[in-house]
């Protein structure tokens, strides 16, 4: 399980790095925005950030069994950890691209994948 997660994160980092090189090669001057500690120095930070539309109560409802003994990872994952981890990718467009509906769909797809790959 941990290997799959590591491979996924590594693939995301490589893909985002490649995307950054492509957009830099175009030579465009893009608008750069800052949204506090969560999203800094990116055109995507002008949009809503994940914590603007995905709240603690929603996380708790989706993953209410994550701390049960059957999940084998009691105390491993919580809302704050998810938000902190997502801040690495929000300036690159994760959950901050497009309108609010598109952003919510992207996060829902990600959380659906996480939920299906864990015992939560």
UniProtKB/TrEMBL annotation:
GO molecular function annotation: chitinase activity
Keywords, ordered alphabetically: Signal
Location of the Glycoside hydrolase family 19 catalytic domain: 58-118
InterPro entries, sorted: Glyco_hydro_19_cat (IPR000726), Lysozyme-like_dom_sf (IPR023346)
Domain of life: Eukaryota
Gene Ontology process terms (BP): cell wall macromolecule catabolic process; chitin catabolic process
Name of the protein described by the UniProt record: Glycoside hydrolase family 19 catalytic domain-containing protein
Species name: Nelumbo nucifera (Sacred lotus)
